[in-house]
Amino acid sequence: METKNVPVRCFKCKSMNVGPSVDHDEITVNGRVFRATLAAQVCRNCDEATIDAGELVQFALVVAQELVHAGDHSPAAVKFIRKALGYTGKDLAELLDVAPESISRREAGRLQTDAATMATLGALVADRLAGKTTTRDALLAFRHVKAPEGPVDLGRLEAGSYAFTA
Ligand SMILES: [Zn+2]
Fold first, then answer.
1. How far is residue 77's CA from residue 83's CA, in Å, rounded to a whole number?
2. How much distance in Å is there from the Cα of 4 to the middle of ligand 1?
């Protein structure tokens, strides 16, 4: 978890009797409700709960992954997944190498989001959950592609280290 805002005192009743616990949260996307139990700081005096910021980010990413797995390519799902990744429309357009308008058109329901885009969004979400940047790096490499300058020496290839399957 990146940031954990641990309140020293309850912002509601000002009690200092605040400690780690859990709280329930739900997210609704395209009419589907997702529920989770998340780490939170809970006031033992008034029961006010503040869910840890990192947990909310994680919850949104897990919901995004569920949407991709369910094949939900509705405008609401596409918008939710983009936001769960923390991208602006411009950020995502740059990564996907499309015009920024194409993102807003998808999210407004004027352009159908295709399978390849959904798969890429799914890979970005899976990477983020795994703490990797593989898909993002590959997309950026495509954007910054240069003409090859000469032979690429890959060294002595170990037998079995590369698997080719038909
Ligand atoms: Zn309180």
1. 10
2. 18
